[in-house]
User: Fold this.
Amino acid sequence: MAEAAKEQTNPIASRPVRCIVKLGGAAITNKGELESIDVESLRSACAQLRQAMSHASAAEKVVGMDWSRRPGDPIDDAVVDAEGLSEMEGLGLDTNFIVVHGAGSFGHFQASRSRVHKGGLHSTLVKAGFVATRISVTSLNQEIVRALAREGIPSVGMSPFSCGWSTKQRNLASANASQIIESLRVGLVPVLHGDAVLDELLTRIQYALNIEQFDVAKQLREKLTEIETEIIRQREAKRGSSKTEAQDKAINLLRVSADLQKAVDSENYALAASLRDEIAKLEAESLAVSAKALAYQNVKYVFRLGQKVRHKVHGYRAVICGMDPVCCESKSWMETANVENLSKGPNQPFYQVLVDVYADPELLVAYVAEENLAEAEVSEKGRFDHPYIEFLFFGEDTAGDFIPIKQLREKYDQPRYEASGDEDDDDDSTDS
Assistant:
């Protein structure tokens, strides 16, 4: 009974998490080197975290908890002062923290080369890539847990995959937090990380194929195609086809004008008044849509599809993969991004760009105003890696920019760009 009462009054169980600490992957790894940890930055971050957790009465001596050995380590490093630890009343730390870290230079290479982000575990390449990606990101997680443990922080690594997290059409579908909650309750610090997890719809397709339920697999594939088509439709609707809108408004205007004339001829003046109001509204809408259509038709883009650029403010390298004549995002997005503070506001071309994973592993895709981009210098056109590159581009031209596939050019109604030395390339042969 006494133990039960003590457990019920456990302060860890009754108060909210004090802090969730995010260790950026780019900050704790060397982003230009594959699977390379910035040891000093990681050590410094762990020491600062211990300081933030420490009570005023915390012991100065750090109780190291990494008792494992690596090849070449002195045998003495594995000696544990069990007697001294058993006499300690506590660690003097507020362990009500959660640590989350990015992958940095871990995992992205494996995921990119195997296309694991596209799904398809029936493919040997994707299956191997899934395994390789998880090996990479969990190895980083283990090293971070060890670094925290060496600072006396009682840390435990937790992988979203092992905790049963999953997605559905690449959106989070389930996230079991019971292990996290229980670890906090007993005074452990959960350390979570970016991970590869199973997608429910894609997994169901693979399962159906594995047990030879081909009809079920076909239905699930059709459902997946339906979802992807709807996503594309919504994106296109957001961007809008202004020419078609203008034509529809003009047709409606003619129809309502004809109805107005009939109402006047039949002396139905109440209906005529209502139709006049509708015509005034349609004329205003038609004028706005026509202006929008004209903007789409006459826009002049500074940058082209496949061109490598640099963000003037944040400095990262990127490549153009889409373009809008004006900002097509929602009002709330524009408010969050402070679009009105730009010198040209939202009424300037905006570009979808793929961000070099070596420049910023945490930011894959961005939507950027034209005034915030600059053409990449020759010295900046070196190695560029991104998991979507091979789906949208054939390769690089002689100038070091990417060559967009035909479907991408047609989507944005952009001509093929010929870099100096590429003029003899046959468009039909490259678009097969």
Summary: Residues 325 and 349 are 4 Å apart (CA to CA). Residues 269-298 form the longest helix (30 residues). Confidence is low (pLDDT under 50) at residues 1-14, 207-214, 422-432.
